[in-house]
Structures are given as structure tokens and as C-alpha cells.
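Per your request, structure below.
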């Protein structure tokens, strides 16, 4: 597990490292510069270093001081290094002044503008994580100059111009091929449009670790370990009952596909048994497409709810009068763990009494997961989709708090939110997953994982691992087929499809 931190969190952890752990700021700065130098040296053969023309864009803050330390190290390794100083030297930080004094004895060129038209390597050390204002004037001109060049571009800690918390571009931003970030990943590099500026992100702790939290854990985390390490452990002596029973309430006349995809995904995620309740017209289709599934009609709902370990409702359900009655009955049915997807959320958005039922059952202790995409969350909350996209994490958390649910809000990044928990951020996945039925596959995937872990995990953890498994399956499908050719069924077939050494 890794953490994605805000600027304020990162500053606190750095301060804790210096003031409470006792590692001097100068040591951290040296480690940061060595981390960037190491990335460059790994890419450039020793015999080619003298041929490199390196431009380091340095501001007057501590990020610029990192750049000055880097200039010294690269010059020692034989690179031709030039530092372009941007800003008012009278506002330089103490660390910057110290690094500048050290650098005077090294063969590094200095100037208030670039001396060449072309460079092979450009390093951005202009602004750090504290930037919150729009970039303009000489700073914007410097970034534009760098972006116009064909050099290999590296950002120190964060691309200048990128808001560290939101990923918003503050007027303009350095367009890096690689970002070497320190301590922990910054949230703004994980959410759009941040990844487009950050390029490949390389994390180096430089001496700042979880031991420096001192009880102040970050508010967001992500997974980076192999999926096999996160999945519920399988009992070698288990049986189909051991691995959980999923009830899927899905489908309407001429809408069988969503139920098929969700049922397949639940099985691929490891569920021992899956029962699908649907309209009679869908039975033959489901028997052929998912012969492993048990089948029933909506009239069997009470008995099926009693049978299941977890239940999911919504894929292809429709929004007619029968669907309202079915959802109402499901919400009124005790404390059975429940996932609401697709049309179940559309019905919830339309009917305040259904929302009241939802809140009543979560207050009574029922665990409920919602899986809205931005459009569905817009209908649930009343906020416009463009507004939600600007801070999806915050709005999803607000709705989770309001309803007492786990909300897995789906977009370029998926955020899994629950009151009192750090937010899970999924950065895996790809644009090939933006295809009809992908959400149905996610619903089935979460249900399958939840069913087999019901005695060990809460809804939040099941949703986090389910989202991650779904994204990994999408990446596998894109790897096998390409992003243009991906279909939801391709993702479903690859759910938890692990081979030795993969994921």
C-alpha cells in the first residue's frame, strides 16, 4: 500500500522528519538530489555524459535548491550543466542560499536566461508542492520555453504549475517525461489532468517514511502490490459454500446482458455460487451464457435473500414500477450486505422514500456499497457532472457520510469513500475500459470478492480490492487486445485471472 498526500500532509511529514526524528533538512535535500541524479545516470551511459547539455530551471525556493544540489552532482559526473535562475534572489530561502554557495566551486553555468537553443536534458526545479496561484510572467515564459524543446524532461518532486492536491493546471505547467517525487505520491499527480504533466512517476522516500506520521495518517491511499497479495485467502479444503453465495438481482425484458456480465465477473472473482433473479424472458439467455449460475425470478426474492451471503441489485434492472417495488423490498430486507449499481441508483435518485429507506438500514448497521459513475453521482447529489469532476473525492465522501454507505465513485480515477476511513484511490485501469458493460463487471467483481471475505472484511475493504481487481483485469485486457478492442466481456474473463509472476 502507498499513500497519496496533500501538500499540507507532505509538509507536516517533512517537518516531523526534521524536527522530531532529527534528520537535518540538508540531508533530505541531498537525498532528493541524489534520487534525481540516479534516474538520469541510469538512463545515460557513462561514456555519453559529456555529450549531454543539461538545463536546470531553478526557482528561489527549496525546490530550486534541490535543483542547485542536482547541478553540483551532475557536474561531478561529467555533464555540461547550466542553471537558469528564475525569480527574485532577494526572496531566496536559506537552503537555496546554502546550496548556491556550495555550487560556486563547480563548473556550472548560471544565468537569468538560457544560453543555448537546444538541450538534451531539461530539469524542472522551479516550484514545489506549495504553489497555489496562477503562473504568469517570466515563470510562464520559462515553462513555455522548456515545453517547446525536444529534450528529455524531468520534474523534481512535482511538475511546476500543477496543483499538488487537485491536479489542476495553474495557468500552465511543465510537461515532464519523468517526475521524481519524494516521500509520498502527491494527489495532484494521480488525478486528471495531473498524469499528463507528470509522465512516469518515480517515488523515492529520501528518508521520509510512515514512521514520520506520528499518528497523523494521510487521508488517501492506493495499492501497488500484486493483486494476489490482496485477494481473500482460499481454503484448500473449502467448497462452493465456503467461498460465498452471491445473489444478483438484475435484468429486464430485452436487457439480459448486464446480468450476464455481472454474474460472470462474480464467478471470476472467486464466488462459490451465484444466483441471478431476473425476468422469465432472460432465463434461456442466462442458461446459455452462464450455465454455472442458479436462476430464479423476482417472485423468489425473499427466499433468495435468505440464501445469499451478499446481494447486488441494479444492472439492467430498468426504472419501471416493478423495479421500484423490487428495490424497496430489498432495502427493507434486514441487514443482508448489499451493493447498489446502475438502475438501482437511478431509482434512488428519483425517489426520496427509497433514499430514506437506505439511510434507515445503514443506521441500523447494514453494510451497503454504491458504485456510481459521474453521471449517476450527479443524479444522486444534484451537482452538475463538471462540478463533480473537479473534486470527485470530496463529493463522493459527502454522499457516503450523508447515507452511511461506501461509495465507489468511478471516473478516470476511482475513489472509494466511507466516513471515518482514508479514501482509496485507484490509478490502475485504462481508456479501453470506457465501454458499455464495464460497470456491470465491476459490480460483479466486488460482489464475488465480498462474498468470499464476508466473515473477515468489511464493505469498504471489499470495495477497494474489487475496484483494484477490476482495474487490473482491464489493464490485462488492454495488454492482450489493445485499448480500441476491449469489451466488457474481455474484462470479466480476466478478473483475478492470475498466473505465476503476474500482477
Amino acid at each position: 500500500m502507498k499513500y497519496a498526500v496533500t501538500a499540507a500532509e507532505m509538509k507536516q511529514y517533512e517537518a516531523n522528519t526534521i524536527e522530531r526524528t532529527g534528520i537535518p533538512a540538508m540531508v533530505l535535500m541531498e537525498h532528493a538530489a541524489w534520487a534525481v541524479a540516479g534516474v538520469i545516470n541510469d538512463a545515460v551511459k557513462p561514456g555519453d555524459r559529456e555529450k549531454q547539455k543539461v538545463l536546470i530551471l531553478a526557482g528561489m525556493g527549496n525546490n530550486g535548491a534541490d535543483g542547485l544540489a542536482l547541478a553540483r552532482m551532475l557536474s561531478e559526473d561529467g555533464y555540461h550543466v547550466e542553471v537558469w535562475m528564475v525569480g527574485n534572489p532577494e526572496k531566496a530561502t536559506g537552503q537555496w542560499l546554502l546550496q548556491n554557495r556550495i555550487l560556486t566551486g563547480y563548473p556550472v553555468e548560471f544565468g537569468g536566461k538560457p544560453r543555448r537553443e537546444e538541450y538534451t536534458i531539461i530539469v524542472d526545479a522551479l516550484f514545489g508542492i506549495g504553489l497555489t496561484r496562477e503562473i504568469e510572467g517570466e515563470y510562464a515564459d520559462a515553462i513555455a520555453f522548456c515545453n517547446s524543446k525536444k529534450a528529455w524532461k524531468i520534474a523534481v518532486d512535482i511538475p511546476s504549475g500543477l496543483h499538488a492536491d487537485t491536479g489542476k493546471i495553474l495557468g500552465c505547467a511543465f510537461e515532464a517525461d519523468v517526475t521524481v517525487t519524494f516521500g509520498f505520491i502527491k494527489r495532484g499527480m494521480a488525478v486528471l489532468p495531473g498524469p499528463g504533466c507528470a509522465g512516469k512517476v518515480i517515488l523515492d522516500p529520501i528518508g521520509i517514511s510512515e514512521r514520520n506520521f506520528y499518528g497523523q495518517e494521510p487521508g488517501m491511499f492506493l495499492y501497488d502490490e500484486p493483486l494476489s497479495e490482496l485477494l481473500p485467502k482460499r481454503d484448500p479444503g473449502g467448497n462452493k459454500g465456503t467461498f460465498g453465495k452471491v445473489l444478483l438481482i438484475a435484468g429486464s425484458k430485452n436487457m439480459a446482458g448486464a446480468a450476464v456480465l455481472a454474474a460472470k465477473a462474480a464467478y471470476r472473482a472467486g464466488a462459490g455460487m451465484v444466483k441471478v433473479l431476473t425476468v422469465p424472458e432472460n432465463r434461456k439467455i442466462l442458461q446459455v451464457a452462464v450455465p454455472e449460475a442458479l436462476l430464479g425470478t423476482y417472485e423468489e426474492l425473499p427466499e433468495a435473500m435468505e440464501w445469499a451471503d451478499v446481494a447486488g441489485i441494479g444492472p439492467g434492472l430498468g426504472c419501471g414500477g416493478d423495479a421500484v417495488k423490487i428495490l424497496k423490498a430489498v432495502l427493507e430486507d434486514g441487514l443482508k450486505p448489499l451493493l447498489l449499481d446502475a438502475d438501482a441508483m437511478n431509482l434512488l435518485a428519483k425517489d426520496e422514500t427509497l433514499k430514506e429507506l437506505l439511510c434507515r438500514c445503514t443506521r441500523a448497521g447494514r453494510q451497503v456499497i454504491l458504485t456510481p459513475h459521474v453521471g449517476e453521482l450527479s443524479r444522486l447529489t444534484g451537482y452538475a457532472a463538471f462540478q463533480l469532476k473537479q473534486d470527485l473525492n470530496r463529493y463522493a465522501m459527502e454522499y457516503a457520510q450523508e447515507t452511511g454507505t461506501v461509495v465507489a465513485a468511478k471516473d478516470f480515477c476511482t475513489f472509494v469513500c466511507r466516513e471515518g476511513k482514508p479514501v482509496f484511490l485507484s490509478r490502475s485501469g485504462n481508456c479501453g475500459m470506457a465501454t458499455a458493460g464495464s460497470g456491470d463487471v465491476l459490480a460483479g467483481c466486488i460482489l464475488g470478492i465480498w462474498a468470499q471475505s464476508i466473515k473477515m472484511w468489511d464493505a469498504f475493504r471489499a470495495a477497494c480490492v474489487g475496484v483494484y481487481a477490476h482495474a487490473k483485469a482491464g489493464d490485462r485486457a488492454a495488454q492482450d487486445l489493445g485499448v480500441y478492442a476491449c469489451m466488457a466481456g474481455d474484462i470479466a474473463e480476466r478478473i483475478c485471472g492470475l498466473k505465476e509472476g503476474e500482477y
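The chain has two domains: 2-220, 227-493.

Regards,
D.
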